[in-house]
Amino acid sequence: MLRAGIVGLPNVGKSTLFNAVTRTRNAAAANYPFCTIDPNVGIVTVPDSRLYELQRIAKTGVVIPAAIEFVDIAGLVKGASQGEGLGNKFLTHIREVDAIIQVVRCFEDADVHHVGGHVDPVSDIEVINTELMLSDLDSVKKRRERLGKDIKRGDKTAAAEDAVLEKIEAALDNGRPVLTVELTGEQRALAAPLFLLSDKPTIFACNVLDSELATADANPFVRKVRDYVGTHMSCEAVVISAQIESDLVDLAPDEAQAFLADLGVKESGLDALIRSTYHLLGLQTYFTAGEKEVRAWTIHAGDTAPKAAGVIHSDFERGFIKAETVSYEDLVRCGSVAAARENGVYRMEGKEYVVADGDVLLFKFNV
User: Fold this and answer.
1) Strand 359-365 versus strand 67-72 pairing type
2) Crossing angle for the helix pair 156-173 and 121-152, nearest 10 degrees?
3) β-strand partners of 284
4) C-alpha triplet 166, 172, 139: angle, nearest 5°
5) What mean pLDDT do residues 49-76 have?
6) pTM of the prediction?
């Protein structure tokens, strides 16, 4: 299961958000730095209304959504790459996740301490990014030193890797995170073993007060974050209120909807954040649907039918014969598999078929 790490400065709402996302109270959330030291881990289901349409068609009582793992990582501070605030330990935790959700404080509150003394979300982002890039720069330089010996012996693979790392090092020296460096798939594969922190897909969560969620688009802090990350990192920023999400944890769905309506908000930002994180990881969903259950399966965009079958069981991939396939839209429009067959939209696909998001599949295999 792929993992998304929640990071940010101390006291920006990371642990409160983690508790809301995972619908638990596992992460300590307190008004002082480093109240989280060891990372908290939780499994998060991905909201997908398509499951319930398929449930209606399949006439089953069991629905199993897709899931990803969220990790609450302790707050970073300036100097973390040199060990400040237990920084080396925390940076190691970031290295172990597949994507980053960077929580940014976009609210004023005299009762909540800010490690920088005042609220400046762009400065906060730059502190975090600088520490990630300094850590990466150290890793790249050490690796290039080791490669130098192999290059002198005429190792072409070492030379190719060094050329990629030279390009990355130049970007880091100029204050650019690795994810902004234009590299081919082959070049990124050469750098992948370093697990560079600033190369991880990143989404920014603008944390606002509950009273400001309905008007968040006008929040000057939110606007600054969106402008900065769009210009400097080509990343997405979503708006959440960690405190609201925490309050919603204990409410039934209808009560939660009424609570949001009272605040002038149609929906919370949590579902959007989870979906955005799912797609940030390059993931998509296909479905299996029958009387036993309707289930969402997670694959990478671009996976072929045998690869998708292997997510269910390795035998499905090893003995793959074909995939009976219908798109979600066609199945819902037709109302049943039988009607989809009659309308010619129920297909047989082979080993080269690239699975599309929302495909409803039935695999045939033989081992």
Assistant:
1) unpaired
2) 150
3) 299
4) 70
5) 89
6) 0.80
